[in-house]
Every structure is written in C-alpha cells, then in structure tokens.
Specification:
With about 850 residues, the protein is of the alpha/beta class. It has 28 helices and 32 strands. It has an eight-stranded mixed sheet, with helices on both faces. A seven-stranded mixed sheet has the order 5-4-7-6-8-9-10, sandwiched between helices. The longest helix has 22 residues. The two termini are about 50 Å apart.
C-alpha cells in the first residue's frame, strides 16, 4: 500500500483524516490537515485529558491549531465513525455494522463494540454508528442536528456518560425529537449528590435527577437497558404513540397476564378499566369462568378466531390507550394462525398494539409474521408492558413541550428586579454568602411571591415592640450578618403569646449563639406572625448543577423534606404548562387537588407563582441557592413562611457564573415603534402563549399575502394547525428570533398584526429572514421596521450574513430589501430573487 510521510505530500484532496498515532504527535498532524484543507478529522488515539494535565495541554494545542480553519473533529479517545449505508468503517472495529435506519451515538468505545456484536446477532441495522470520545469539538448537539436532517435516519439512540455543552444538546434534541425519536441510556444513575449545601434544595438535587429533568424538557426518552434502546427504536417506528397511560392486556394464560399487569403499574402506567359495553360483549363471547377484568384471560382453549375477536373488542374500547397481546404455547393454541389473523391490527388502529409470543421454535413463524405486519413482539410480557409505558412517557414528554401555555390577564405582573440586585450586592459587598430571612423574603416579594411580614430586631426592646405591632402570637428567630452556615440556634418556633415570652426567646437565642459561635456573631432576631391556617407545606427552590446550571425544585416541604424526598426538578425558565407538569410529578400534587373533604388549592395560582419564581432564578444570576420551605398552600392562597437565599461570594467574577441550559426570553429585544399612521405597536420576541393571537393574524390574511409569503396557496386550516404553530411559537431563542408586532385593540385586548423571523442555518453562520404583515396594516412601514430590527439582532447574535428568498412579483418586499442595502440576485428558472447582506 502506497504511503506518504506527511499529509501535505498526498497529491489528491483529502476529505477525512483518521488519526491513529501517539497522542504527542496529534497536534502536529492536525496542523498538517488544516494546511491541506482537510474538512474533517477523527482522532482515535488516547492519551489526552484522561491522562491529566499533559493530556489537557495536548487538547489545547489541537483546539488552537484548528481555530478559524472550519475543520471539525470527532474524538479524541474514541472508536471512530461508521457509515454502513456508504460502506465507510473509520474505526478499529473488525466488522462494519449492518445498514439500517437507526443512528447510534456513544461516548464509550468499549460499549460500541459490544453493541455492534449484539446488533449483528439480532440483525439490527444502522444509518450511522458514532463513538464521540472526549468531545473536544463535535458534541451531542452537532450530531443530533446532523442526524435530525438525515432522511435515512428514522431514530437516534444514545449512550451518554457526560452531556458536554448542555445548551447545544438541549437545543438540538428539542428541535429533532418532535420528528424523530431520541432514546438514551445514561451511566451513573445512582450517583449521590456531589456535596451538601446550605439550602434544602442544594442537598436534594443530584446530577442524575437533573439529567432526567433535562431529558423531559427536550423530549428525549430515557431507558434503563441496552435492549430497551433498540426495542423503543423499533416500536416507535412501527406503532402510533398512545394518547394515555391505560394498557389493556389480552392473554391465553393467567400468570403472564399478571406479570404484565405488575410491570405496567410499577413502571408508572395504568391498567385500563374496560367499559360496561365491552364487558357485556366479552361475557357473551367467553366462557363463564373468564377473568372478568383486565387482564382479559381468554383461557388456554381459545382458538385463533376467538382470540382475535377479543382483541377487536378490547382494542376498540374508548377507555383503552394501547393493547398487549400475550400468547403461550398451550394445547389448543395456534400461534401461527393467530398471528396471521392479527396481522391487520398492525396498521390503522390509531392506538399501539404490541405482542409477546412466549415460547421456543413453535412460536417463531408467528413472531416473524407479526413483525412483518408492523406489530412489535417481545419475548416476555413484563418487558412488553414496560415498552408500552415508555411509549406513553415519550408522548407525555412531547405533549408538555408543545402544549400551549395560558397567559392569564395580569399574570405577568411587575417585578422589582433592581431592588433584588441591590439586596444581593449589599450582602456580597459585606462578604456575606447568606441573606437574612428578612432579606430573603424581600427578594421573593419583589417577584410577586406572597410572604409573611418579617422584621429585624437588634435589641430585646425592639423585639417586644415589633411583636406588639405585628400582634401575637409571633415567631422569633436568629438574625445574623456573620453566620453564613446552617445553624439551629435560631430555631425557636414557639407560640409566643406575650412580651415576656418574646424577651425570653431573645435571651435564649443570644446565649445559644454566644456558646456556639461567639458573642460577636449575634446581631439580633427576626420577628414574624405565627401563621396558623390549614394547608399543605410545600418546598420551592433552586440550586446549581455542574452540567445544566440553575435547576428548579418543587415538592412536599416542612421539617421532613429530606426524609420523604417527594420532589420534582425542572430547568428554568418555566411557563404555566411546564409548571403544571412539574407539579404533576409529585405525590403531594394529589393532595393539593383536595382529599378527604378538604378544599383544593388554586393550582393555577401555584403554577403562576412557579413561573415567577423561575424568572427570579433566571434574572438574578448572583443567587446561587434559594428555597422557600415551607410555602403554605391553602384554599385561601399561598404564603412563604420561611425563605433562605445563598449568593455567590465576592471571589466569584461575572464570567464564572453558571450559564443557563435554556436561553430565556430575550427581553433586550422588546421595543415600541410608531407606524406611519401614528399608532404605537410593541415589537417583541414571540412567546408560546401567542398561538391564539397568531391564529387570528392568519384569519385576517388575504390569499395574495399568503401566496407571496409561502410561494403557494395554503389553506387556513393548514396554516393554523397546532402542530404547525408549535414550531412557530415554541422557538429556541438560540436558533431563531421571531419578532411579533402587537397592538392594543379597541376592546383593550391585544392582537398581532405582523411577524418577522430570523432563522439561523445549521452549519453556517448565516440566517434567513422573512416577514408577514396583516393586509389591513400594510404600507405603514412595519415590514421595513421588522427587517431593520431583525438585521440589528443578527448583528448582535454574531451572524455574518442574512438571506431572504422573495418571489419576483413581490415588489413591496424587493423595495424594502433594496432600501436596506441588500444585494439582489434573480433566478429566472423558479421566479425568485435572493436578497443577501453581510451584517
């Protein structure tokens, strides 16, 4: 085989460099590849950051030599890359994977080889097989984006050890998951929290739970075993997703049906309760001693015709979201004939139908027949039931992503962010990491979260005076500007009904502090009213995860919060839909709806409070940890009884503050502008809550405006379909910015009269521009202003070039582009004009 000493000696153009040399030589070879114009490299070699400081320096050298070249790199320390559809095997594995429609991405090279062996035995094929290694350059987000746009990839399965760039991963996964299933298995599920923290929240959050929350937020389905990765890839490709968690089980043997029932319930799903009509039809069809419940045991002597009739009744029941068929080899069973008669149920039911044909060679022909008909089969019924639960969880996650949240009138409120910044700055300047309880409650009140009035008393006389003003009974607790750790010396929570009790509590706290931390640590106490209303104690909090940044917590609160650990985590910011989903994941949520005659809590108000709390976390980046425990939730309202806020110390610089995993609403792009007729409109980034107003905008458009914008006639029903509008309203502000023009209507409501969009193009530092204006408000300068502001946003977002494709007959848009300085280039074949501008 002819070889060359250097990359530069190769006479042909090199597309891909596969580097398998000692680690110390890799930076030099990367330099040669850059000089030769190589666009991609795979570094299989090990010996980098996993080997300490020397390896980290080698990685820094690689990054330095790649900078500005446009070359992309996979690795180092990886198995390599396979493209089975093209016959490319750039790995050190001896066999190439079979071609197929599943893309597999892994951080573990050893796991790659094991999966490769398993899949070749199981005849599972791949569209791509990628080992990421250390992710020095190409990471999860890059590959998910690429595979999401690959028409030959129908699903993506992943083995993760670390997330890397959390924002890139979440951004890509959220965009792709609606059109292609993304299924993941993550190592380290039982890892304990990295360290205890000053707040309850910091002690409760662990990295694996945070990852679970991140997966929910971006639509990734998490499974527990490698086999389940490929089970789910198959079943989501073959069957529709269930609309709910209710599974019906049809079996010819009681034991396997019970196993499946146990599995679906323990996983988190439900057994469907069959309707009275279905029960009556089954009574007429089956012998008197059938199970008379779900699972439906048709008994061992059921012939194929009867089994299929039972499936037809059960699967058609409105109370059933999916059906599992179990067949065991018994005397009168005919697995092949039964499978043949069930084949039509593989398509067109609108609900998932799955099967478990249990047994050996006698079942093989029936299994093959079911699989060919589109009905996935599993060797054991408990596995099959768990697969159905995963299908439902996938549906649930996606539904949460694109369910339009509610924006109630006045729910946005007015926050006093500046006052919070002042409180935090004052504490940091004094060298304090822990805010006092009074300061913590001022922080909450600034974001519209109801709190108990809490005042500071620096002397015994002040304590009694404030208690008299507030009114007995009161609570007296420690206040200190120097004690920055958890302490129980201030935990006096007594029903203090008179001045003598208050004075005694003051002296007890002062003496306890003097014994534990020295008299110089004591400044005073806080006094607040004793709240004796009935309700539920809730905890709401936030702490920082090393990978995902700030994380929110909601759950059952009180003194035993760490014991019960009834909690849910989520990534900020929230909207009302996401807040509701967060609450639904806890056991206390059932109690909040009212139990044993107790009135329910206003869950809408609680959800809106969580939204405001998430805004606090997003906007106040100097806050490290915060919790409200307890938050009293009662039918009368919400009230924060206790609060604790931990801030970053003065040693932390702004550039070291953790980045939010999800980019929040870009308030910096909110402006007001006057149209030519003098009317003022608000120009702001779009929100998920805008979907109803966007529907009304489309209802007002003329057919000509629709044609000029979309290059073809589009029915109103298509333009306003929820599935389409979710893509427009639920956007990732890192990927695109859509500005809407909002005007106040005569009835004081709001309406949208225009929308402009700046969409970044994958793999290029360019973005597309487009605009759509209500016919009644055209020729008022609105289109020009939207373009002008989007161009300014593109400049702010570091986009190099913006492009618009316009029909040649759309003279108004062409005039706008000419006025703003675009270069225009006509395409005579398709009748369009491409307008582009460097920004």
């Amino acid at each position: 085989m002819k070889t060359y000493a250097k990359v530069g000696d190769i006479p042909e153009r090199v597309d891909l460099g596969v580097i398998v040399t000692p680690a110390t030589t890799v930076p030099g070879i990367i330099s040669e590849c850059v000089a030769a114009g190589v666009r991609g490299a795979i570094v299989i070699s090990a010996g980098f950051k996993e080997h300490g400081e020397q390896g980290q320096e080698l990685e820094r050298q690689i990054v330095l030599r790649m900078r500005g070249s446009g070359m992309r790199l996979i690795g180092p320390n990886c198995l390599g890359v396979m493209n089975p559809l093209a016959g490319l095997n750039a790995t050190f594995a001896s066999n190439i994977a079979l071609p197929g429609s599943v893309a597999f991405i892994s951080q573990s090279g050893a796991l790659c080889t094991a999966v490769l062996d398993w899949c070749q035995k199981e005849m599972v094929g791949f569209s791509a097989f990628v080992s990421l290694g250390s992710m020095l350059d190409v990471g999860w987000g890059d590959l998910i984006d690429y595979l999401g746009n690959d028409p030959r990839t129908h699903s993506i399965v992943m083995y993760m050890e670390s997330v890397g760039d959390a924002r890139s991963f979440l951004s890509a996964a959220r965009e792709v998951s609606l059109s292609k299933p993304i299924i993941a298995i993550k190592a380290g599920r039982t890892q304990e929290a990295a360290h205890a923290a000053a707040s309850h929240t910091g002690a409760l959050t662990g990295s694996d739970e945070v990852l679970e929350a991140a997966f929910r937020r971006c639509g990734v389905l998490r499974v527990n075993t490698i086999a389940e990765l490929f089970y789910m890839s198959e079943v989501l490709a073959k069957q529709p997703r269930p609309r709910g968690p209710r599974l019906a089980i049809v079996t010819n043997a009681g034991g396997p049906g019970v196993l499946a029932a146990d599995s679906i319930i323990s996983s988190g799903g439900q057994l469907a309760k069959l309707s009275a009509r279905s029960m009556e039809e089954l009574d007429q069809l089956l012998p008197p001693h059938w199970s008379h419940s779900n699972p439906v045991d048709v008994l061992g002597d059921a012939l194929p015709e009867k089994f299929v009739k039972v499936v037809d009744i059960v699967a058609g029941d409105a109370n059933v979201d999916g059906t599992l068929m179990i067949l065991c080899p018994q005397g009168m069973s005919d697995p092949t004939a039964t499978a043949e008669k069930l084949a039509p149920y593989g398509r067109g039911m609108g609900k998932p139908v799955i099967a478990s044909w249990m047994g050996g060679d006698a079942m093989r022909a029936g299994i093959d027949m079911l699989n060919r008909s589109g009905i996935p089969t599993f060797p054991f019924p408990d596995s099959a039931a768990r697969v159905f639960y995963y299908m439902w969880r996938y549906t649930y996650n996606l539904r949460g992503l694109y369910e339009t949240p509610i924006l109630r009138v006045g729910s946005e409120g007015v926050t006093s962010a500046a006052s919070v910044e002042h409180i935090v700055r004052r504490a940091r300047d004094a060298g304090r990491a822990l805010l006092s309880e009074a300061e913590s409650k001022q922080v909450l009140a600034a974001y519209g979260i109801p709190t108990v009035e809490t005042v500071i008393a620096l002397t015994e006389a002040e304590a009694t005076e404030q208690a008299e003003r507030i009114g007995y009974p009161v609570v007296v607790k420690l206040y200190s500007e120097t004690i920055t750790h958890k302490t129980d010396v201030g935990g006096v929570r007594l029903n203090l009904g008179d001045a003598a009790a208050v004075r005694l509590a003051y002296r007890q706290i002062k003496e306890a502090v003097g014994e534990k931390a020295g008299p110089e640590s004591f400044l005073g106490v806080t006094v607040q009213p004793m709240v004796q209303a009935e309700g539920y104690e809730i905890i709401v909090g936030s702490s920082v995860d090393p990978q995902f940044g700030p994380v929110l917590l909601f759950g059952a609160g009180g003194q035993l919060v760490e014991v019960f650990q009834d909690r849910a985590l989520a990534l900020p910011p929230l909207n009302t839909t996401l807040a509701r989903r967060m609450m639904e994941q806890t056991r206390v949520f059932e109690a909040l709806q009212g139990v044993r005659g107790r009135k329910p809590v206003d869950l809408a108000a609680l959800g809106e409070m969580l939204v405001r709390f998430s805004h606090l976390v997003v906007e106040q980046r100097w806050i490290k940890e915060i919790d409200i425990n307890p938050l009293l939730a009662s039918p009368q309202g919400l009230l924060a009884l206790d609060a604790r806020v931990v801030v970053y110390g003065p040693e932390v610089q702004a550039e070291r503050l953790p980045r939010l995993a999800i980019r929040p609403y870009p308030t910096q792009y909110v402006t007001e502008w006057a149209m030519k007729n003098g009317e003022t409109v608000a120009l702001r980034p779009i929100r998920p809550e805008d979907e109803p107003m966007l529907i009304r905008l489309h209802e007002a458009l003329s057919e000509r405006s629709v044609y000029l914008r979309y290059f073809q006639p589009l029915k109103l029903s298509h333009r306003t379909a929820h599935e389409r509008l979710t893509r427009i309203c639920f956007i990732d502000y890192d990927r695109e910015i859509a500005l809407v023009a909002e005007r106040k209507m005569e009835d004081s409501s709001a309406g949208l009269i225009g929308i402009g969009r700046l969409s970044k193009l994958h793999g290029r530092n360019e973005a597309e521009l487009a605009v759509l204006i209500d016919d009644r408000h055209q020729h008022q300068g609105l289109g020009t202003e939207l373009y002008r502001q989007l161009i300014a946003i593109a400049r702010e977002e570091k986009v190099e070039r913006v492009v618009s494709t316009i029909l040649s007959e759309n003279r108004d848009m062409l005039a706008i582009c000419q006025k703003l300085g675009f270069e225009l280039q006509s395409d005579m074949e398709d009748g369009t004009v491409v307008a582009q501008m460097r920004v």
